[in-house]
Every structure is written in C-alpha cells, then in structure tokens.
Amino acid sequence: MVERIVVSPGIEQQRWRRLTGTWMMVMLLLFPILLLLGAFMRIVQANLLPTLLPEWFYAVMTLHGLGMVGTWFVGAMAAVSYVLTQYVRPSRGVSWAALGATLLGVLLLLATTLIGRFGVGWYFLYPLPFYPAGVWPTWATWTFLFSLAILGVGWTVWAVDLLRAIAQQYSLRAALAWHYIRGETEPEVPPAVLITTVSLISALSGFLAAVIILVLSFLEWAGTGFTNDALLMKNLIFFFGHVLVNITMYLGVVLVYDILPRYSGRPWKTNRLVAIAWNTVLFLVLFAYFHHLYMDFVQPQWMQVLGQVASYFISVPAAVVTIFSTLLLTYGAPMRWTLSSLLMYLGVMGWAIGGVAAVIDSTIAVNLRFHNTLWVPAHFHTYYLMGVVLMLLGFAAHFGHEVSGRSENGRLAKLIAALFVIGGYGFLSMFYLGGAHSVPRRYAVYPQEVIQGVDYARIALGFIAVLFLGVLLYLWETGRRCVLAFRTSEPL
Ligand code: HEM
To answer: With a 6 A CB cut-off, is 66 part of the ligand 1 pocket?
Structure first.
C-alpha cells in the first residue's frame, strides 16, 4: 500500500496551497505575455512592421524562447511538488527560494533582451554571445550569463531537494521501482514518484552540463586568453537544452498520471511495464540529443547513428506506454469531463502528435532537408503548446477547483478546449507547412525564394487570435481561482 501523508485541511496544507497558488499565478501571468511576444514575431515575419530593425526580432525571440522554456519548467516543478506532498515531504523554503531566484533571473533576462537587445536565441550557441558585432553591449552578455547562473543554482537546489524528499521516504532504488522489474510489488511506488525520480536525475545531469558551459564561458569572456572548443560547447549546450525540454514534458506527464485517474474513476498504478519503460527513458534521454548535431560532420559517425537509434527508441517507452495507458484509463470509463481532465487528455494527444513530428525530424535522411526549417519550431511547439502547456493548465484548473470548491461552468470549459484546439493546431499547421516548403526558421524577414513564409505567418496570426481568446477565457475561469487559493491560504 502507498503510505500517503495526511494533507487534509491543516496549516501545512494551507501553506502548500499558498505556495502553489503563487507559482500558478506567476505561470499564468507570464504565459499570455510570452504568447504575445510570439505573436509579435509572427507579425514581423508577416511583413506587417517593415520599418522595424531586425535585431528587435532576435531580442524578442531570445526572450520568448527562454521565457517559455523557463516558465513551463518552473510551473511543472511547482505543480509536481504539490502533487508529491501526498507521498513525501519536500521543503517549502527551497521552493520559495527557487521562486525568488526565478523572479530575479527573469528581471535580468528582461534587461539583457529589452534594454541590451541581446539576441542570440534561446540556446545561446557558442560563440555567438561573445561576438555582438555592435548589436548588443558587453554588459548584456554578462547580465545574461549571470541570469543563467542564478536560475541554474536555484533550480538545481530545488531538484536536489525533491530528490532528497523522495529518497527519505522510499530510497532512490525503490523510487526507481527496480523491484517491480524483478516482479515484486512492495513497497508500492506511485507513478508520480517513479517518473519524478527519473526526470530529476536526468535534470541534474543537464544542469551539470550547464554549469560546465557557464564556467567555460566565463573563462573565455574574462579575457584569460582561453578559447573554447566549439563542438564541445555545442554538445554541452544541446545536451542541456534537450534534457530541460524533455524533463519538462515528463514532469507534465507526472501530473496526468496522478490527476487524470481522479476524473476517470480508475486507478493508474506502477507495474512492471511502467517501471521498465521509465527506467529505459532514464538511460535513453542521455543519448537522443545527438539528433541536434547531425550537421556537424566532424562529429564521429557512430554518435549520429546512436542519436537516431536513441530518438526512435525513446518514444516507445515513455510516450507509447503513457498514450495507451491514457486511452485505457478513459475508454469506457465513467469520465468526468471537466476543464482539467479535458486539457490533460488533449495534452497527452498533443504530446503524441508532436512526438511523431519529432521522430520524423530525427531521421537523418529527413533531417538533411528539414534542418533549421520551420519544421523544427513546428514539432517542439506542438509538444510544448498542445502537450505540456495543456497538461499544466489542466493542473492549474484542477488546483483552482480543489481549493476554491466552486463549481465549474461546463459549457465554458468545452468552449475553451475548442478554442485551444482550433487556434493551437491552426497556428502550428502554418509552421508545418512552412517547414515542408523549406521556409527557414529564425528569419525575421523572408527572402524572395521563400516568400510564401509571409502568407503562412499572416494566416497563423488569425489562429493565434483564436488561441489568445481561449487563453483569456481560461484565465477568467481558472486564474481567479488561483488568486483565491493564494488569498485564502496561510502565509508562508
Ligand atoms: C501561441 C503561442 C506561441 C507563439 C505565437 C509562438 C511563436 C513563435 C515564433 C514565431 C517563433 C520563431 C520561429 C522561427 O524560428 O522563425 C518561436 C520560437 C520559439 N518558441 Fe514559440 N510561440 C508560442 C508558444 C510557445 C511555447 C508554449 C513555447 C514553450 C516552450 C515556445 C517556445 C519557443 C522557443 C524555445 C522558440 C525558439 C526560439 C529560438 O529559436 O531561439 N513558444 N515562437
């Protein structure tokens, strides 16, 4: 039996609600702002601001990319921490400190991009940050590196604390459910604990890569005469970025495993298959990132082949097991379709669709054509926007409902879901069409050869407007409840 920690109304639970409500408010505040920055980029690509300096496009692209990736990572960590309090005891203090570090990091990022016009893109590929070519001042690079350092420290301590809490209750070996692989089922390990453990161990390996990148960057930037190896830096950066994005996805899946069963009336437990699947993920996630480096012909060929093989296999354990389990969980079940369960279900489907597009792109023969076309933002926006974002919005809806106890407007919930689906997939299909027609990614102004990119951007704007309407209605429905959760709960 899972030993649940009692969290029924009490001061402790009130404090977790205050903390989680605060995190959810930050997430729900940043989302529409960052979405509008995305819309701004599509407006530029649609040629509707012809006199704008292109460097603004790149500064906004950097802020939008980093902001979105960071927002959904911290949102997922906060939501998972709340879910985990049923089973283990994470530290609230560490989570508050992570919030402080996040806000400070965001302020520095705003300064470096909006004042300094730092425009290197979200993964700041070496050596671009060090060659501003007069576009951004030196302080902007420094500020950027400092903001990453602050975020990195805050998030690493947070991940370590969650692992500490899990290890105290279960031991890491039990939390990884190795005994299920041997055929034993005691102690019972909830899927939320298993998947969080896998995710956070991977996250720490990614954060370690980030620390090495920062140290190497500081060494070169401080004028010591030391020069970095560009291929090593690229490997480190892509390892870090790939792990961060995947981990966010898996943390979103934790929420689905824990919360969706409450709406379907069927339990979702760890079993041998689930244990094997997630332990395989722990191993494969470390190698799949090579698919970002296919164009680096100096990289040993076996690494590229390993990248393709790992990319193919990683989709089987995590995604296929989860997707089939979701279908089994809901098919013929007495489902309660609320805003939360609808969004979580759609989130799993979005993960599946984005995953297929990602596997296509990870095929070396295809990547030769699709590399750096709009196919790349197409697939990662799919599993982010229609995947993990929907899972997290589903969590926030569940949390707001649980805390406020207010009944939900069922018709409004369905309308919001419909606007998300129409607006989201419509917006994404313009990225896919662009990719299939070789429209390059990260172009502020499309040249004559790929001028159809302008039309795709214009059509995308209509769909973004539909999506934005859905987001506003969602905020009206759920944002209010999260504010209530904050106001009616115990401080600190
Ligand atoms: C409706 C919402 C969104 C819109 C309109 C939007 C729009 C855009 C556009 C136009 C680009 C530049 C594409 C190009 O390379 O030409 C972009 C890049 C990007 N977006 Fe979004 N986006 C949205 C949601 C998201 C979400 C939810 C995420 C989650 C992480 C995200 C993360 C990124 C990242 C990481 C980049 C790459 C930035 C870079 O290349 O450095 N976006 N987005």
So the answer is: no
